[in-house]
Amino acid sequence: MTLLDTVVMRGLGLHGALSPEDKALLLGLELNPKRVSAGEVLWQEAADVDLFCVVKEGWAYSYRNLGNGSMQILKVYLPGDIIGMRDFGFSRRLAGVAMINDGVVSPFTYQQLFDLFGHSPALASCLIATTVRQQAMLTERLVYLGRYAAHERLAHFLYELYLRLQRIGAIEDNGFAMPLSQEQIGDALGLSAVHVSRTFSMLRDEGLVQRDRQHVALPDPDALARLVEFNDTYIDESLPPAFQAFQKLER
Amino acid sequence: MTLLDTVVMRGLGLHGALSPEDKALLLGLELNPKRVSAGEVLWQEAADVDLFCVVKEGWAYSYRNLGNGSMQILKVYLPGDIIGMRDFGFSRRLAGVAMINDGVVSPFTYQQLFDLFGHSPALASCLIATTVRQQAMLTERLVYLGRYAAHERLAHFLYELYLRLQRIGAIEDNGFAMPLSQEQIGDALGLSAVHVSRTFSMLRDEGLVQRDRQHVALPDPDALARLVEFNDTYIDESLPPAFQAFQKLER
DNA sequence: GGGTGTCTATAACATAAGTTATGAATAACT
DNA sequence: AGTTATTCATAACTTATGTTATAGACACCC
User: Fold this and answer.
1) Are residues B134 and B186 located together in one domain of the fold?
2) Are residues B138 and B71 in the same domain?
3) I need a labelling partner for A70 at 20 to 30 A (CA). Which of A22, A245, B150, B184 fits?
4) What per-residue confidence (pLDDT) applies to B12?
5) 222-241 in B: which are within 8 Å (CB) of A?
6) Which DSSP string corresponds to A140-158?
7) Any idea which of A132-146, B16-30, B132-146, B163-177 has the lowest mean pLDDT?
8) Are B136 and A86 an interchain contact pair (Cβ–Cβ within 8 Å)?
9) Which of A117, A227, A248 to mutate to test the interface with B (most CBs of B within 10 A)?
10) pLDDT tier at A140 (50, 70, 90 boundaries)?
11) Using alpha carbons only, how large is chain B's radius of gyration in Å?
């Protein structure tokens, strides 16, 4: 899973018409793949910001450990995502990042990013757009944490994962591997592990979600989407016309 | 209140050494000031993304109206802030924006932003860093919504406003004008208006917050900061060394 | 292969926050 | 100035979610 597969192929980027230099720049971010194992911490909160990562295999999450002993998971990263852009422009990490299961990541440096920015404004604006989209997902979770009940939060979380996994071809028969424990899901949704379990049972009884250990199936994704009134604006990946014009101009 | 006052003077940007062209580009975003009145909607959710705004006077907020009838306020904008960058790279607005009180805003276009990006990568990276910082504030609220109780959320919210207002010289005797109603504060913190009132009473009884209509005073800001274990990493405005090196290089 | 730990389901109970209601204080309007 | 509409404080009651506890299922390890 390379950035070319995600950033570009998804309609972001230049609609299949990346210049060779742009392709090289993008691939240059993925030259140092590194095997990482489940639970491994890629960096801690408040660590120096030195590099970013492309997730090539496996899932990761960013988190904050809080003074009251609890943890808030901010975001789950899937293959093809870039980790760490949240910290762009900061000296220290705002959140830690850890692997959920075994995987492969490709670290790249600030320097590489700046090189890319300097050489291809079009590609830079693409990467920024990707980052903004990731933030939009966070905003969507904020909305759910603020104003929706547990079953809606969980349904939304699962449906969002479903859409993101679909995009990278990781959905089979409406089901997917789910390496997060209920405790971790609770940490993402601001719920206790017990209540996550209760809520899963509830969604199961309503026929909306089937779960067996590390496997989740959504028998009727559309029904789930209706339940959470899924707003897909933020997951839509087309760029606005002004943006495309700019990118053409730059080449 | 211009961007030069905020983006640049705050240590973001080139440490007082902006080139004349960069200054002109920045000021170019503020050529069309426009008077707006309390409650005025700058744009609705899902509207086309055509422009962004610098807030010159007054407060604004971005919001989402939800299917269940409630509203989630995402962010409060103060003078010197840029509104709308959240939507950069999207065709449609992810959130509406409305004025809280009377004020003045300066709209600028996608085109202007791209011009700036094309002409000054250094300034572009500054604007991006500013946007990322705004997003970091959102993330901080996400953490509070997920894992802290009402009194901590409110204390944190007030203290963050306090710090931001201090930066633009809007704090007097540890107090500031607070045009938000308790209902709106509730919409920002994911609480009912009634509970916001209760929580204000509680903080008042503990001597942490004084409030009189549209005026809030924090008699002991440090005590408040301790209560919320305020993490000021995300409000710190210095740029990392790599960033500064890049900016020097670009000039 | 039996012990050990982690994950999950469910129950019983505790509590923070939501809801509804009411009156007082303030602001807005004519 | 009097009327009306917001906003706020507080109380009484309800409910969703947290907490603690327990037991079964599965994974891991020597």
Assistant:
1) no
2) yes
3) B184
4) 56
5) 229, 233-234, 236, 238-241
6) HHHHHHHH--HHHHHHHHH
7) B16-30
8) yes
9) A117
10) very high
11) 18
B248, part of any domain: no
User: Minimal Cα distance from B64: which residue of A?
Assistant: A143
- Is the pLDDT at A241 greater than 80, yes or no? no
B233 assigned to some structural domain: no
B143 contact A CB<8A: yes
Q: Which pLDDT score, from 0 to 100, does residue B86 have?
A: 87
| pLDDT grade for B248, boundaries at 50, 70 and 90 | low
- Domain holding B169, by residue range, is 149-227
Per-residue pLDDT reduced to its tens digit, B174-191: 999 999 999 999 999 999
Q: At A129, which CATH number?
A: 2.60.120.10
- Within chain B, how many helices (H) and strands (E) appear? 9, 11
Residue A229 has a pLDDT of 82
pLDDT of residue A243 exceeding 60, the answer is: yes
- Which nt is closest to the CA of A184, judged by C1'? C7
Q: How many domains does chain A have?
A: 1
Q: CA A242 to CA A46: how far, in whole Å?
A: 37
Domain identity same for B22 and B124: yes
- B15 — pLDDT class (breaks 50, 70, 90): very low
* All residues at 6 or more sequence positions from B190 whose CB lies less than 8 Å from its CB, including other chains: A145, A146, A147, B72, B145, B153
The pLDDT of residue B158: 97
Give yes or no: residues B132 and B76 share one domain: yes
CATH number of the domain residue B198 falls in: 1.10.10.10
Q: Indicate whether B154 belongs to any domain.
A: yes
B182 in the same domain as B134: no
Mean pLDDT of B74-79: 96
CA A249-B3-B9 angle, 5° bins: 120
Residue B9 and residue B111 in one domain? yes
CB A104 within 8 A of CB A42: no
Q: Quote the CA–CA distance of B205 and B217 in Å, as a whole number.
A: 14
For chain A, the residue count is 251
- On whether residue B232 sits in a domain, the answer given is no
The first and second tokens of residue A88, run together, are 């762009």
Q: Domain boundary residue among B143, B159, B191? A: B143
At residue A46, φ and ψ (nearest 5 deg) are 70, 0
B131 with B85: CB under 8 angstroms?
Answer: yes
| Alpha-carbon gap, residue A121 to A24, rounded angstroms | 14
Nearest by Cα to B61 from B83, B36, B37, B33: B83
Alpha-carbon distance B35 to A177, whole Å? 53
Least confident interval from A24-28, A196-200, A239-243, B164-168: A239-243
For residue B127, what pLDDT is reported? 83
